[in-house]
Design a protein that fits this description.
- By secondary structure, the chain is of the alpha+beta class.
- It folds into four domains: about 160 residues, MoaB/Mog-like domain (Molybdenum Cofactor Biosythetic Enzyme, Chain A); about 50 residues, Molybdopterin biosynthesis moea protein, domain 2, CATH 3.90.105; about 80 residues, Beta Complex (Molybdopterin biosynthesis moeA protein, domain 3), CATH 2.170.190; about 70 residues, MoeA, C-terminal, domain IV (Beta-clip, Beta Barrel), CATH 2.40.340.
- Helix content is about 20%, strand content about 30%.
- The strands form seven sheets. The chain has a six-stranded mixed beta sheet, with no helix packed on it. It has a six-stranded mixed beta sheet with strand order 16-13-17-21-20-18, sandwiched between helices.
- Helix 1 packs across helix 6 and helix 3 runs parallel beside helix 6.
- The chain is elongated.
- The structure holds adenosine monophosphate (AMP) and magnesium ion (MG).
- The site of adenosine monophosphate (AMP) has 19 residues, from helix 3.
Length: about 400
């Protein structure tokens, strides 16, 4: 909470993070064009329509264990073993009263049998097999359709395809799928001071890091990217590039030049050439962020400080891309509450996305700020494993305080 001596950073004209999110999602409709692709190319793509199971999975009753298949109704007495059955090689004769069949995991249950006793509970002497403990009807048998019954929805349309989803489709024998076409995103960085890597730095120049960061974040989301390079702070050059970008892409992203300085042209150009829905936000880092439309394309003008570029991308551009790609929600990352392992500094007034590290404590995971928090400190972002999300009204916090955390790395 705020302490008396910390002045507020609140800007009454700026939108809150929640308001901005609402505006952005409402103006980010899903694309509808579908394409058919082989299942092997499905990773990271978005399923365009629900898939119904054309068959039961599993298709046959089969054994969950290596053991003996038998009829539970014959009682707990010994059985005569009359054969063996392996996965992929069904046993053709029925199991009759007093008999059992040696069975391996995944083998089809022979006709007549209803139960499998694991081999650990069996004593075999010649063809005689005795069993320890009670024989429970149906034990260790995988029933047809237990995983997925025929006709049920295997995956809903809008599923972002992860390895398990591809596995489910493969388990149904499906080899071709309908997905939405990839979102096409054109981007460029702006700034007179920017120089590409590999060139010597002139006086006052810096290397352009944002363009590669943007390209990489976009690739992780499976978008088709168009790198339009680095454009100097010349309104005519920026206008030209915006025009080209708006015609070729579903979404256009720029970095830099979006604030109120004399070399900042993005917001006014967007106003002249398209529509601006949002400009200033009550957040840190990333107060200026232009969002609107350039013709048919969504437009994001991100701030130039690399950490601001990344934070605004993850908070706003990523959800907009996920929605435009046609994925089912939620589009924003889950938030977990963790205790602080170290004190944290913050002025009240703006929602703050501090870069954090996860720490394995004696009583579970904790979180601590990752180094310096200024928006030009890119190494802090490189060390970060999470964002610590602090509400606008919050001030500095002592260790042990519970804070909201968004994990940066997805498991799947
Ligand atoms: P701007 O948003 O254009 O006012 O830029 C804010 C700060 O970010 C300035 O210090 C810029 O030099 C820096 N910056 C802008 N674009 C980039 C970029 N592509 N790579 C690295 N730093 C940048
Ligand atoms: Mg600039």
């Amino acid at each position: 909470m705020a302490t008396c001596c910390e002045h507020s950073e609140h800007d009454p004209e700026a939108k809150s993070v929640a308001e901005a999110m609402e505006i952005i999602l409402a103006a980010s409709p899903p694309i509808r064009d579908q394409i058919a692709i082989p299942l092997e190319e499905g990773l990271g793509r978005v399923l365009a329509a629900s898939v119904q199971a054309p068959m039961d999975v599993p298709a046959w009753p089969n054994s969950a264990m290596d053991g003996y298949a038998l009829r539970a109704g014959d009682g707990d007495g010994p059985r005569k073993c009359v054969g063996s059955v392996f996965a992929g090689h069904p046993y053709l004769a029925p199991v009759t009263e007093g008999q059992c069949v040696r069975i391996m995991t995944g083998a089809v249950l022979p006709e007549g049998a209803d139960t499998v006793i694991p081999q650990e509970l069996a004593n075999r002497e010649g063809s005689q097999v005795r069993f320890h403990g009670e024989i429970l009807s149906g034990a260790n048998v995988r029933q047809p359709g237990e995983d997925l019954p025929m006709g049920n929805t295997a995956l809903p349309g809008g599923t972002l395809l992860r390895p398990a989803h591809l596995g489910v489709l493969a388990s149904l024998g499906i080899s071709e799928i309908a997905v939405f076409r990839p979102l096409r995103v054109a981007f460029f960085s702006t700034g007179d001071e920017l120089q590409p890597a590999g060139q010597p730095l002139g006086p006052g120049q810096i290397y352009d890091s944002n363009r590669l960061i943007l390209q990489s974040m976009l690739r992780r989301l499976g978008t088709e990217t168009v790198d339009l390079g680095c454009i100097c702070d010349d309104p005519d050059r920026i206008r030209e590039t915006l025009e080209k970008a708006g015609q070729m892409a579903d979404m256009v992203i720029t970095t830099g030049g979006v604030s109120v300085g004399d070399a900042d042209h993005i917001a006014s150009l967007l106003g002249q050439m398209g529509s601006v829905y949002l400009w200033k936000m009550n957040m840190k880092p990333g107060r200026p962020l232009a969002f609107g439309h350039l013709g048919q394309a969504s437009f994001f003008g991100l701030p130039g400080n690399p950490v601001s570029t990344m934070v605004t991308f993850y908070q706003f551009v990523r959800p907009a891309i996920l929605r435009r790609m046609g994925t089912l929600g939620p589009w924003t990352p889950p938030v977990f509450r963790l205790p602080l392992a170290a004190p944290l500094r913050k002025k009240p007034g703006r929602t703050d996305f501090q870069r954090g590290r996860l720490i394995a404590g004696e009583n579970g995971w904790m979180v601590a700020p990752a180094g310096a928090q200024s928006s030009h400190i890119l190494t802090g972002m490189a060390q970060a494993e999470c964002f610590i999300v602090l509400p606008a009204e919050s001030g500095s916090l002592p260790p042990g305080s519970l804070v909201d955390v968004q994990i940066l790395e997805g498991l799947v």
